[in-house]
Amino acid sequence: MIALLLALGSSLAYGCADFLGGLGARKAHVLRTVMIAAPASLVVELLLWPFLGASFSAGALGWGAASGVASAAAFALLYRTLAIGPMNVLSPVTALVSAMLPVGVGLLQGEHLGVAGPVGLPLALAAVVLVSAGHGSGSVRPSRTALLLALGAGAAIALQLIFLHQAPSDSGVAPLITGRAVSSAVTLGAAGLMLRRLGSERPAYAMAAAAGVLDSVANLLFLLAARSGDLAVVAVITALYPAGTVLLARSVLAERIHRGQLVGLGTAAAAVTLLALT
Q: What torsion, rounded to 10 degrees, do the Cα atoms 28, 157, 4, 63 define?
């Protein structure tokens, strides 16, 4: 139950971070937003160090660095995917892949689900697709390139979660600090190489920093959840993060929640209830 609650908190924090990051990216080039969000996230994790501890063993450094590279790749692939579109087809593909791969890894590592698990996991995966799907793209079909990018983005997100899960359980926040330092270096390096393409628009500083802080909180909650529960369950609950984005968009931007998304939210609630019984 503790792992489930932590995973739900991680999902909510990821959804809020995506919402704020998306709003910030509307005001300036997305890399300008990340140039603020990434250091802000790293600062939060460094502040947590004295309270949660950090053991920078070879395993923590290796898996943390791998998660950082995966995080940077996920960022690049995800935004390129959504730029090509259609979003309401590609976003569910990305979310579903990001959930399914950790589930597969967890089951291959010998995790055993309770009686309700075989029903709860498929329901949660269905909820991921329904909640993240937008409203009608008509007859527009994604190109092969767009689908490959969506699969790559989902795989990169999944690898980030898997690598964090593989880090030693007694390493504290060392994997998070290492991963964020690596992903920040990669992202800032890319921004430096593309400086002339970034434009002169100023990003929303406070919004970008808040997105970075929330992303750091989400990573921490996922790590704690994965250390106290099954990766298969924790990953699929975390992948419900689009629900937080949808609800914030409804509350703040007055965006309409479509019927399929409402069904997805109800399905998510049912899935979480079943998984809590496992």
A: -110
Tokens of 205: 């500083």
Of 6, 4, 28, residue with least CA distance to 205: 28
Rounded Cα–Cα distance for residues 17 and 37 (Å): 10
Number of CB atoms found within 10 A of residue 277's CB: 12
Q: What is the DSSP letter of 172?
A: B
- The pTM (predicted TM-score) of the whole model is 0.82
Neighbour-count burial for 167-204, b at 16+ CB within 10 Å, e otherwise: beeebbbbbbbbbbbbbbebbeebbeeeeeebeeeebb
> Sign of torsion, CA 80 68 63 46?
negative
| pLDDT tens string 82-135 | 656 665 666 677 778 888 888 888 888 877 766 666 777 788 778 777 776 665
Q: How far is CA 113 from CA 31, 43, 103, 235, 255, in A?
A: 41, 37, 11, 14, 37
Q: What is the distance, to the nearest Å, from the Cα of residue 161 to the centroid of all Cα atoms in its chain?
A: 8
**Residues forming beta bridges with residue 54, ordered by sequence position:** 172
Packing angle of the helix pair 205-228, 144-166 (nearest 10 deg): 60
Which band of pLDDT confidence, cut at 50, 70 and 90, is reported for residue 32? confident
CB atoms within 10 A of CB 145: 11
Amino acid at 216: S
